Amino acid sequence: MKIETKYHGLIEVKEEDVINFPNGIPGFLEEREFAVIPFSEDGTFFILQSVQTPELGFVLTNPFTFFSDYDFNLENQAVDALELDSPKDVTVYTVLTMADPFHLTTANLQAPVIVNVKKKLGKQVILTGSPYQTKHNLFPEAIAK
Length: 145
Prior knowledge:
Distance between the termini: 46 Å
Shape: globular
Radius of gyration: 15 Å
CATH architecture: Roll
Number of domains: 1
CATH class: Mainly Beta
Order of helices and strands: EEEEEEHHEEEEH
Structural class: mainly beta
Largest sheet: 8 strands, antiparallel
């Protein structure tokens, strides 16, 4: 199927690659279908693109690429909602707040996007009681200079 996107214009997305967010995502509860589209050639950045709303696209990355000690436990409610059977079925993303200059970009580690890649189910989970916040510097070494 063809979808209009925020960053890539009109693109083709396979129906079976669309991820269903049964409860939407915080702030966009009516948005339930998204595609994860590569945003960088090296596979570091992605766009979580709404299938229905072209201007709704979030820049994502794998948090473990930048925060190797990132760790959290999913509450049973999230595990059930995502119908998770195995940790192998999970992909974790973090939403980025892009900045200009780019080295000031931050990652929201408090609310990771969890995807059951096997069943194509997604959920943005708000971590409660964790040390993580909504803005962690992606490149802290660049800021320290």
